[in-house]
What does this fold into?
Amino acid sequence: MRQSRTFIPTLREVPADAEVKSHKLLLRAGFIRQNASGIYSYLPLARKVMRHVEQIVREEMDAVYGQELLMPALQLSDLWKESGRWDGYGPELMRMRDRHDREFALGPTHEEVITTLIRDELNSYKKLPITLYQIQTKFRDEKRPRFGLLRGREFIMKDAYSFHASSASLDETYQAMYEAYKRIFTRCGLDFRPVIADSGEMGGKDTHEFMALSEVGEDTICFSSEGEYAANIEMAEVNTTYSRPDDVAKTPLQLVQGEPGQDLHAFATAQNVTVEQTVYGEAWLVDGKPVLLLLRGDHELNDVKLKLLFPDVARRPLTDQEVQDTFGVKRSFVGPLELPEEVQVFADLAVGGVADGVTLCNQASQFAVHFEPMRDCKIEQYADIRFVKEGDPSPNGMGTISFAKGIEVGQVFKLGTRYSETMNAVFLDENGRTQPLLMGCYGIGISRVVSAIAEQYADENGLVWPKQVAPYQVHLLCLNIKQEAQKALAEELHDVFTKAGIDVLYDDRPERAGVKFADSDLIGLPLRITVGKKAEQAIVEWKERATGDAKEVAVHELLGEVQQFLSPTGRG
Ligand code: ATP
Ligand code: MG
It folds into this structure.
């Protein structure tokens, strides 16, 4: 392809509103342009990268018996009402009306559409299992669209759905998908981790997210210094046994007036008490009743773990006003002592290890010292309700926990009968009995993957595409297009490469050499071949984008070397 005929609007300036590397570079290198917040045009270079990612995804989905289909983006509200998500999905669901005043959603995902499709067309166990997928634009009115393609309001997703007659069959497909996802992200060149994830309020149990490791990731992943264990931070269990000294302190609990403005932390510091000896409370409403959750001063409440402690009931933090009405003080003075009758107390496991501690007593600026949780207050139950910390023992029993940031590029999910039961999608089993279909769903953010690759593969000069997904394989530069010998050789090489099936971008523009080199680094194709001063001697310059390795190559050896470099086992 002649660069003079392409649409690659590169920018010299760094766009002011772009915060992260991939967003800046994709704008500067002419891959994307924003239309509205979280809404982008994918220009030809981005479209090519995306096609390569899609190709990898299609090959791997087909290999696990996935069949591609395409479902409508416009979805009748009736479907969403049937599943209960018209209200449940909240403001992220883009809603609209047609000329007959019928309500529609712009699909953020397709469980409803596919469940009704299968419900109406498939009714026997003989047709199961079945796996279907599509690659399509999705719409989500995200609260904070940002980081370019990483969190868009309109984005491209591969979503697959599987249907099963038995949980063994669902397990099998889930595992096959899990392996296919590992192959997909490996082939895309991503440094990633599959992690144990939270099933959220979506129902279903088993789920893994695939996280591309990156500083700009919005999720925190915990992984073990030994073994395979990796989980989203909210899923990582605490694996510490807290014991407390046998000789319970004899010193009685004592209330102390703090300095004005002092909080628990400041008070403890002034008293030379370590943060590990302090205990604070979080006030929640669980099943309509106020509950106090006790935690050690250096620990943070993990609300996902509250689901295990209080399954199937509504729970939320108390509002400031509710805290004041229930406890008679501001939130920062809420504690386990002198509590109103109706408040039940639950404590994190670590609180059980606190001895001679400091805590709060529901009186402004008052603190309690020589606090012994077991002795001084009534605790209904001790449970794991905190986030793990770096250095905690790993849940797999080996090594310790470290943290990393990740971008969620994909998720596999066992939905079970969440949709088939609410939408009455059933089949007849071998004994002629009616059973709800079992379901799995499997998503990959195609446009997010493109950004995640850009985030992982870039340097100070621009993008550095891995060859499997690069928009073109080779960048051929003619330094001075007005110079006959250079032009003739460059045209010839363009021809040779094209005929050999190599996807080449040929910079034939009447630009200065400096501009061509800068644009070439910015766009980041794996290999650059420059036709310059030595054209008459039939010598060109070879430069690899990733390593910077450069050399001169004689023209008669060039094609062979390029093919070798681009081959799956080549260095590129
Ligand atoms: P997130 O937690 O990042 O909002 P999600 O868990 O809601 O994502 P899923 O419903 O699991 O997302 O969607 C499947 C995949 O689609 C995700 O793994 C992610 O790669 C991609 N994706 C989700 N939301 C967006 C978005 N706003 N922009 C780009 N890609 C997205
Ligand atoms: Mg997800």
